[in-house]
Design goal:
The chain has four domains: 80 residues, 2-Layer Sandwich (Gyrase A, domain 2), CATH 3.30.1360.70; 92 residues, no CATH class; 127 residues, HUPs (Rossmann fold, 3-Layer(aba) Sandwich); 170 residues, Orthogonal Bundle (Isoleucyl-tRNA Synthetase, Domain 1), CATH 1.10.730.10. 49% of the residues lie in helices and 11% in strands. Helix 16 packs across helix 18. The longest helix has 25 residues. Strand 12, helix 12 and strand 13 form a beta-alpha-beta unit. The chain has 19 helices and 15 strands.
C-alpha cells in the first residue's frame, strides 16, 4: 500500500469531472503539522487564468475526504494532513505485507551487473573498495524491486599485467621448472600471493624505464593470449591462486558473484568481433592497426567551464576505437566488446550495468558505440556505465598510508575490525571478531553509500563507526535494541493504533523509506535509501526515549507499541540487507 498513491486516487475519484487531474501529484512535506503537499494549483491556475491561492481554496472546498485534512499555504500550496486512523490503517496493512508496502517495478527486467573488476596477480587495495560496495548494493536493490539479476566480477586476467608478472617471475628464477622438458608437471610451489604482490609492482616500475623489458613483456602477453606454452599454463596457475584470495576479500565485504569470468573467457569471441567489424565494413587499417571510426556527425565534446562566465569550448570528437594493435595484439576495448558478445549469446539481457571509477568513462563510451554500431548489442538493450568518485582521506587526497603507500583492502578490513572491537569492548563485548567485522564493514559501507555515487567523499573511520548520528552502527544498534525489547516482551504485538506524534513520525518515515527504494533504483545511487533508513531509525529512538514500551500498563497500547517495534525492525532489516550490511542482535 502506497499512501501517496491512495490519497491521489481518492482525490481523483472525488473530483472526477470537475478538474483535469491528469497531472496531480503529491509529495512529502517537511512542514510541521503537514504530511503531504501538492503544487497542483500552480499548474491549473495558469490554464484557468486564476491566481494559485484562489484555485487552491476552490479545490479544497470541493475535496472533503474522510481521514484527510486540507489547507492552503501562500502562494497556493495545498497541504494535506492524514488522520491517526488512516495512518493506523496503513501501518497495519504494510505490517503484514511481504514487501512492507514497497512497490516492485511494474515490468521486471533481466539484468547483468558488472562490478568488482579485480586484476589477477595484483593485490586488492583501497581503490578496489567502492566497486564491490556499490555494485553489491545495486544488485540487491534490483532484486528487491523485482528484477532478475546476475553479477559478474569481470576479472582483469588477460592484459599486460600478466606478461609483466610472468617475465619478472621468470627473471627472478621462480619459473625455471616451466622451461624444462617436463613443464606440464610444473607447479607454482614456491609462489604465494605475497610473492606476486612483490613481483608485479617491481615489474610495473621497471617497464617505465626499461624499453626492452616492456617489449619482452608485450611479447609474453601475446604468447599467453595465443595460449602458447608454457606461458598459458603459468597464467592459469597464477589466475587460480589470485581468484582464491580475491573471493576471500570480497566475501569479507558481503559481496558475492554469480560469475567469475575474466577477459580470458572472452578470448574465443575476439576474432568473431574483429571479423564482424571487417565484414560490415566498419573497421579499417591505420598504421598497421585496425580501427573503427565512432565519432558522430557534428559531435563536439564540451570542456567543463572553470567559471559560469567562461566561453564554452569543445574537445575534438570521440577518437577512433582500436580493435587490434600493430603487432596483432588486442586491447582492453576489444576484450570489452567480445565480453558483451559472449554475454548476449549466454542470455537475453534487457540491461547490462557496468560499474567502475570515472577514469573509464571514455572507454565505455567507445565500447558501447562499437557494440551498437555492429549490432552486438541489440537496439532495445540498455547499456549503462555508472562511474564513481574517489575515496579520499581527511586531507582531500586519495586515501593512503602515512608513508604515501596504497593500503591493501584486507588491511582496511582488519582496521575496521580493530576499531569496532574497541567500541564493542566499551559496551562489555569482547573477543567477538565476526561481530566486529559486521559492524566495522557495515560502518564503512553505509558511509560510502550515503554519498552520491559520482561524487568523491572523505573516508573517516572514526565518524563512520560512531554509534550516534547518521551511521551504519546507529541503525544496527537500533535493530539490536528492538530485538532485545521483543525478546523481553515475548511477543511481537497486536494491532497498531497511531496516537502520538512520535508514532506519526515513525509511520510517515516508513512511507518515505518505501519511496526511497524507487528513487535509488532510478538514480543508480543508494544515498536516498541511506538517508531514509536513518530517519526511520532516528524516529524510533525518539519513541523509545519518550515511552516505556515494556512497562506500559495499558495492554492494548503495549501491544500496539510492540507491533510498531516489529514493523520498524523489519523495515530497517530490509534496508540494511539491500545495502549489503549485516543485521546484528547485540552491540
Amino acid at each position: 500500500m502506497d499512501l501517496r498513491e491512495e490519497i491521489t486516487n481518492l482525490i481523483k475519484e472525488k473530483l472526477n469531472g470537475k478538474f483535469d487531474l491528469e497531472n496531480l501529484s503529491i509529495s512529502f512535506s517537511d512542514k510541521e503539522g503537514v504530511d503531504f503537499q501538492t503544487n497542483f494549483a500552480f499548474l491549473m491556475a495558469k490554464k484557468l487564468n486564476k491566481k494559485p491561492f484562489e484555485f487552491a481554496e476552490e479545490f479544497i472546498r470541493d475535496c472533503h475526504l474522510d481521514g484527510l485534512q486540507f489547507s492552503v499555504a501562500m502562494p497556493g500550496f495545498i497541504n494535506i494532513k492524514v488522520s491517526n486512523e488512516l495512518l493506523s490503517k496503513f501501518a497495519n496493512i504494510v505490517n503484514y505485507d511481504e514487501m512492507l508496502g514497497v512497490k516492485k517495478v511494474e515490468k521486471a527486467r533481466n539484468i547483468l551487473i558488472d562490478y568488482g573488476g579485480a586484476n589477477v596477480a595484483k593485490e586488492l587495495h583501497v581503490g578496489h573498495l567502492r566497486s564491490p560496495i556499490i555494485g553489491e548494493a545495486l544488485k540487491r536493490l534490483h532484486i528487491f524491486m523485482g528484477d532478475s539479476v546476475v553479477s559478474d566480477t569481470h576479472l582483469g586476467d588477460w592484459g599486460i599485467q600478466m606478461g609483466l608478472t610472468i617475465l619478472q617471475l621468470k627473471e627472478d628464477g621462480y619459473l625455471d621448472q616451466f622451461f624444462q622438458k617436463d613443464y606440464k608437471k610444473a607447479k607454482l610451489e614456491n609462489i604465494t600471493l605475497d610473492t606476486l604482490n612483490e613481483e608485479y609492482p617491481k615489474a610495473s616500475k621497471r617497464k617505465d624505464v626499461d624499453e626492452n623489458f616492456k617489449k619482452e613483456a608485450d611479447e609474453i602477453t601475446l604468447k599467453m593470449q595465443k595460449k602458447e606454452e608454457p606461458y598459458y599454463s603459468i597464467y592459469q596457475q597464477i589466475r587460480a591462486l589470485s581468484v582464491e584470495e580475491i573471493k576471500k576479500n570480497y566475501s569479507s565485504l558481503n559481496a558475492y558473484f554469480d560469475f567469475w569470468y575474466g577477459e580470458s573467457d572472452a578470448e574465443p569471441y575476439i576474432n568473431k568481433v574483429i571479423d564482424l567489424f571487417v565484414k560490415k565494413g566498419l573497421a579499417k587499417e591505420s598504421d598497421g592497426a585496425l580501427i573503427v571510426e565512432i565519432a558522430k556527425e557534428g559531435e563536439h565534446i564540451p570542456i567543463p567551464k572553470k567559471s559560469p562566465d567562461e566561453v564554452q569550448r569543445y574537445k575534438n570528437p570521440m577518437p577512433p576505437a582500436i580493435l587490434k594493435k600493430y603487432n596483432g595484439g588486442v586491447l582492453y576495448l576489444t576484450t570489452e566488446i567480445a565480453t558483451l558478445m559472449m554475454r548476449n549469446e549466454m542470455d537475453k539481457y534487457d540491461e547490462i550495468i557496468y560499474l567502475t571509477d570515472n577514469r573509464q568513462d571514455k572507454h565505455f563510451e567507445q565500447a558501447f558505440r562499437c557494440a551498437k554500431l555492429a549490432g552486438i548489442s541489440p537496439e532495445n538493450q540498455k547499456l549503462t556505465h555508472i562511474s564513481f568518485g574517489t575515496m579520499n582521506g581527511k586531507d582531500g587526497k586519495p586515501f593512503k598510508t602515512r608513508s604515501g603507500e596504497t593500503i591493501r583492502l584486507k588491511d582496511i578490513v582488519n582496521l575496521l575490525i580493530e576499531k569496532a572491537s574497541v567500541k564493542l569492548k566499551e559496551n562489555g563485548i569482547e573477543n567477538d571478531r565476526e561481530l566486529a567485522r559486521k559492524i566495522g564493514v557495515g560502518a564503512m559501507k553505509f558511509g560510502d553509500l550515503s554519498n552520491i555515487i559520482s561524487k568523491n567523499y572523505v573516508f573517516d573511520l572514526d565518524k563512520f563507526l560512531s554509534f550516534d548520528g547518521k551511521t551504519g552502527p546507529y541503525i544496527q544498534y537500533t535493530i539490536a535494541r528492538i530485538i532485545s525489547i521483543l525478546n523481553k516482551a515475548g511477543e511481537e504485538g497486536g494491532e497498531i493504533k497511531v496516537e502520538t506524534e512520535e508514532e506519526r513520525e515513525i509511520i510517515m518515515n516508513l512511507q518515505k523509506l518505501n519511496s526511497s527504494y524507487q528513487i535509488s533504483y532510478n538514480d543508480y545511487s543508494l544515498n536516498n535509501l541511506c538517508s531514509s533508513t536513518f530517519d526511520l531509525a532516528k524516529s524510533f529512538s525518539t519513541l523509545y526515549n519518550n515511552h516505556k514500551i515494556l512497562t506500559e500498563k495499558n495492554l492494548e497500547k503495549k501491544k500496539s507499541l510492540l507491533a510498531i517495534c516489529t514493523l520498524v525492525k523489519k523495515a530497517l532489516s530490509n534496508a540494511l540487507n539491500v545495502l549489503g550490511i549485516d543485521v546484528v542482535e547485540k552491540m
